[in-house]
Specification:
Helix Hairpins, Heat Shock Protein 90, 2 domains, five-stranded mixed beta sheet, 56% helix, 17% strand
């Protein structure tokens, strides 16, 4: 039997093999990267779709709430206007005093209706506007003094030279709403604007009936009002303005003593 010659041992050149397969390896790497990108994009799209779905549901709920509340609030003054107009037509006759009284109610309810529509438009615009509001360096001391000048019964304690980077028109509306709200509930009003270091603190104190504890979380909600002639939107609008300006805000109240509405904003 002949001798079997051993086969020579072959050394595999790994480097050469990798070099020869380089295009395939590159293809696999590119494919892996593409798959990773696709997965990331799909996850991002799903999250965006989920966010859009939530926003749409929220908008639909807001629309339903708005329609229900507006329908209720519009019906009341319209009913009164209609009823007193009929009184003027059918009953008042030549009685000037009764006629003037009935016409006064019609005018009052018409004004209330106009105020309600204006507030609804303002609030809807603010809630629909998701862009950043324009801001400017504003002299808050000057703003508060000018607004308080329209309220003769208001006492003030206003530090000089307090500035903040805010939407001036919006912050004027918020301050006016808070002072007007206090003026509607009390006859002794104190408005303060003080330097708190890195922040400016505005507060308005009234000696009204106060707010019970269970109502405090609801006073910033739309259509919440204890006033017969109120629209229930003033504080909701104020809340939107303060949030858009990055302010912290709140209320303290004690039944039989009065309330303190306040906000703090970063000073400049």
């Amino acid at each position: 039997m002949g001798n079997i010659m051993p086969q020579p041992f072959r050394i595999i050149d790994i480097g050469k093999m990798i070099y020869e397969m380089r295009f395939f390896i590159i293809f696999l790497a590119v494919l892996a990267i593409m798959l990773a990108v696709i997965v990331v994009v799909l996850i991002w799209k799903k999250r965006q779709n989920d966010k859009i779905t939530r926003e749409l549901r929220k908008a639909e709920q807001l629309q339903r709430d708005l329609l229900a509340n507006v329908t209720h609030d519009l019906r009341t003054p319209l009913t009164m206007i209609k009823g007193y107009a009929e009184l003027v037509r059918d009953i008042s006759g030549e009685d000037k005093e009764k006629r003037e009284a009935n016409l006064g109610i019609i005018i009052r309810e018409s004004n209330r209706l106009s105020e309600l529509v204006d507030d609804i438009l303002v609030l809807s615009k603010m809630q629909a506007d998701r862009d950043k509001i324009p801001k400017e360096l504003t002299n808050l001391s000057e703003v508060v003094r000018n607004i308080c000048a329209d309220f003769p019964n208001v006492q003030t304690k206003i530090d000089d030279g307090l500035f903040a980077y805010v939407n001036k028109k919006g912050i004027e509306s918020a301050i006016f709403n808070l002072i007007s709200n206090a003026n509607n509930h009390g006859n002794e009003i104190m408005v303060k604007l003080v330097n708190k270091g890195e922040k400016v603190r505005f507060s308005v104190h009234d000696n009204g009936k106060g707010i019970v504890d269970e109502d405090l979380p609801k006073i910033w909600d739309r259509y919440y009002s204890k006033r017969i002639n109120g629209t229930g939107l003033g504080l909701a609008i104020t809340k939107e303005i303060l949030q858009k300006n990055g302010a912290e805000f709140g209320v303290k109240s004690k039944v039989g003593v009065g309330s303190i509405f306040w906000f703090e904003i970063v000073s400049n």
